[in-house]
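ok trying again, last paste got cut off:
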Amino acid sequence: MPEKSLALEMDRGWKAFQIVNGISDSEKKHVKQLNGLFEIALNNMARGLSMFDDKQRLVVCNNLYGEIFGLPQELTKPGTPFADIIAYHVWTETGHNTAEDRAHQRRWIDGHVGALSAGRSFSETKYLKNGRTILVTNQPLPDGGWVDIQEDITEKSRAEKKITWLARHDTLTELHNRFHFREELQTTLANGRDFSVLWIDLDNFKAVNDTLGHPVGDALLKSVAKRLRKAIRQTDVLARLGGDEFAIIRIGAATAAQSEQVARRLLRAITADHMVLGNKITITASMGIALAPEHGATPDELLKNADLALYSAKSTERGTYAFFDPTGDYDIGKSQRLEADLKIALKKKQFELHYQPILDIKTKSVGSFEALIRWRHPERGLVPPVDFIGFAEETGLIIEIGAWALVRACRDAAGWPDPIKVTVNLSSIQFEKGDLYKSVATALELSSLAPERLELEVTESVLLRDHPNTHDILHRLRELGVKIALDDFGTAYASLSYLRSFPFDKLKIDRSFVRDFGTPQGSDCMAIVQSVTGLAKRLRMTTVVEGIETADQFNLISNAGCEEVQGFYFSKPVPVGEIDDVLLRCQDLFELKLVKTA
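nice, full thing came through this time. structure:
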């Protein structure tokens, strides 16, 4: 029942309890029974509730009201002045209640009652010293007085803060992420201050992952982040840009000599032996340095030039640093060769799609497969997308590659059991420079795949670019019958605002939330997953959780109310020829009860 309706019903009910004189014993007994039922209902509410009359005296409250504010029993009795309750609350929260405090309380009460007398309903958030966060909703009553409803939003508040934190931080190292770093870069440039940008890349980090495993690699990244944090000043900005790359905005170190001192110290800190998960690891790093404003007047220009300097350092002697040289030759031919190789890959059909299943928990079956592109290079072997997708976007080749992927994925899916869907990722460049709607329509026509069996995934970065055609294309694709999913939800910029901008069919919750299960941060992550799942259900959206690697993670996610799951526990991405084997494996997982379902 809405707070306003509840308040009116309580007001009418209280008046009924007051009219007990002059009625028969049977009627008094009935009123007494109603009073008992009223008290039971009141004390079984999930929220605290208190009612005050027009003389600012307590009329009634439930037990939870007293518990929330730690009130003694004598302050929860009818007739208790509101001012006494406020005075006690201030004393328990601050440890003092001076004459000045009481004068301040009186002014606050006058303002509070004045707003209610004007017929205003309003809410305020109270942060208690015991760590609880309480949302208090104030509702005026028709003949004076008011009702307060207290809701404990501690977990919800923590989850929202966590989402806000995740928008600007790397979950593994807890450093700032690329988005926040670029924002700081823009702000520092706008302030007109001299500074340097130091771009750091670990040498041969891939060998650590390949020989010792990803858990050791992750632990090494944390160790490097910790050392870098200790080696910089509080005024500097440190971020993990992704993979094994870090960057620093060094305020004031704007000359080559100053930057050299900083660079040497940072590289020494990284090079010292790391003891991680029982392994002694020695690793070096290379660094590129760009000076502002000498080497760039925009964030993109500075980052590009720092990256070019880093490339120069790695090309000459690893474990060292290099400054950007405006007159230097940075082997532009390397980019030209990569572009030529990608064009050849398209022509000679060197690209292929691997598929990872997404399981529907309710039906205990595979609901769809996500298409993930690979490049089978004749010399380099199987090239992962991280090594070429970014460049393909820069050159615009992603439009042709994306169109091929749509056709291939739809044709493959047409041979799968109905109604298994196929999920294809989209790039922002496809929205801005290509004819995405035509590409999708063509793929469906050539494959004869039903539109409802195609799901298209977009990331928040697509929406962040706010291209005027993006929303129009998304709506047209929805009208075509295609499903739209929002990928990596909760890790980027302003996730909740995007849910209002377009009615997505699915939300994919990022793997970073699952990875922290079983750690001190695990309860916060679970709270976020539950909050997102509940929100999605109210918005009629399906939730998919990525990164499931164990049965325990799956069971936790199932209990959180999520509908679909994806991860290596079920299958790694496989070529289309292994789809049948994956379907059987997933079926066995359920039948053999290696995973539990709610």
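cool. The CA atoms of residues 149 and 229 lie 45 Å apart. The longest strand covers residues 365-377.
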